[in-house]
Amino acid sequence: MSYRRFTDCSVSEKLLYTFFMLLLGVGYVFAMLLIFIDTSYEDGTPGLSVEDINIKYRGNRSGTRLEQALIGKMKAYRTNKESSTITSWIHKGASEAEFNKTIKPILQTKCLICHNPALGLNIPDLSNYEAVTALGKMDMGDPVAVLVRVSHIHLFGMAIMFYLLGRIFVLAEMPVLLKRIIVIIPFAAILIDIGSWWFTKYTSPVFAYTVMAGGAVFGFTFVVQSLVSFYQMWFYKGSFKNQYIGSGGEYRRIPKE
Ligand code: HEC
């Protein structure tokens, strides 16, 4: 059994592959540009960082008016433990259930003496959930709907892209184990990358690192697959030649001497 290799391809087939890969390459440049424009300035400084990814998916949850007041002007009215309880509630997404359970009692005993709308003072109302969460809208990152949309577009798009590129790349000659690994890697990396968007948003900021790692790995395999294919297609003569073995028009591969 012999498999097709680039040496078996006609020039038109090679041209088709080459220009397909060329367009993919241009598309890839635009993808990088988008990351640069869209994500790398999330933290206010150029260059993609873990902080950028966190702000994009989790949001910038610190620096709300409530937190500022807790470490600033209102410092005298709370203990450190109360302050960190409130802060971690905000960072975990400020749920209403948790508010009623742990936050409300703190506010009632420590803050409502003054922050009570009934007193008519011109200071923020801290007596109910809506009023408290409105105190500096918390930035929770890209909304779920956006993440669902971007995830499904990426999964379909990337799967098709790497399937087609992989079809071309398998025509290359190389140790078979190496080839199998390079074919699989991008699919695993995409799953890790996109899965990590969700983990970053809902579990821990640590996953911003796997977002970056996943993206870097499939970017790298994209380049490897394209360059190896391009090189072998046009410049590599192959280590086998086809030998004519029968009247049925059959060939077999034999190593070049
Ligand atoms: C003794 C009365 C008093 C208590 C107790 C008090 N505050 Fe205040 N708070 C004020 C006053 C007065 C202001 C307005 C001060 C200003 O803007 O300079 C204020 C302002 C604030 C603001 C708005 C800050 C801003 O961004 O302008 C927040 C938020 C706040 N307090 C939270 C709290 C929390 C949380 C507690 C309980 C841990 C608390 N306060 C306890 C009197 C109080």
Question: What is this structure, in a nutshell?
Answer:
The chain has about 260 residues and is mainly alpha-helical. Helices cover about 60% and strands about 5% of the residues. It has a two-stranded antiparallel sheet.
How much helical structure, as a percent, in the residues?
A: 55-70%
Number of helices: 9
Strands ordered across the widest β-sheet: 1-2
**Structure ligands:** heme C
Work out the count of structural domains: 2
The share of residues in extended strands comes to: under 5%
Average pLDDT works out at 87
Please write the string of helix (H) and strand (E) elements.
Answer: HHHHHHHHHEE
Please tell me how large the radius of gyration is: 29 Å
Can you tell me about this structure?
This protein is mainly alpha-helical and 257 residues long. The chain folds into 2 domains: 6-57 and 141-244; 65-133, no CATH class. 61% of the residues lie in helices and 4% in strands. The chain is built from 9 helices and 2 strands; from the N terminus they run H-H-H-H-H-H-H-H-H-E-E. A two-stranded antiparallel sheet has the order 1-2. Helix 1 (11-38) runs antiparallel to helix 9 and helix 8 (176-202) runs antiparallel to helix 9 (208-235). It is rod-shaped, with a radius of gyration of 29 Å. The two termini are 21 Å apart.
